[in-house]
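Q: Sequence in, structure out?
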Amino acid sequence: YLYTDYGNQINFRIGAEAEFILPFNKSKWGIIFDPSYQYFNSSGQSGLGTKKINYQSIEFPIGLRHSFFFNENLKIFVNAFFIPATSIDFNSTISDLEIKTWISTAFGSGVAYKKLSAEVRYYTNRELLIKYLYWTTDYRRLSLILGYRIF
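A: Exactly. Output:
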């Protein structure tokens, strides 16, 4: 009755990733920081009528990366991220309820060739309405991330 499905969307995100390569195990491990802007705007029907979501934020994931080197130009990598509850929010709401997020995690893997990279990343559920004890959300994402290394 109160369930609202906002559907799936293809959106763009923009971010910058920084990696600190750890000086052991042949530099296969790194600590990564990946702040990014993301948004989700949609509407859906519930037993209470039309509900709208307007979610825009900058998140600050931090994580570990393990790289598998094939040669000096080609590597495959896997990531695991912790995403703190702290984010920069842009007055996000779900039907006039203020969005306040909780921690979540993300996992990804990809390939890097010279200065180009591609990654698929899965974000686990991020609770969006922790301020309201009687509401729960199911906000998961799957991202295709294309990158270009500057340094």
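The mean pLDDT is 91.
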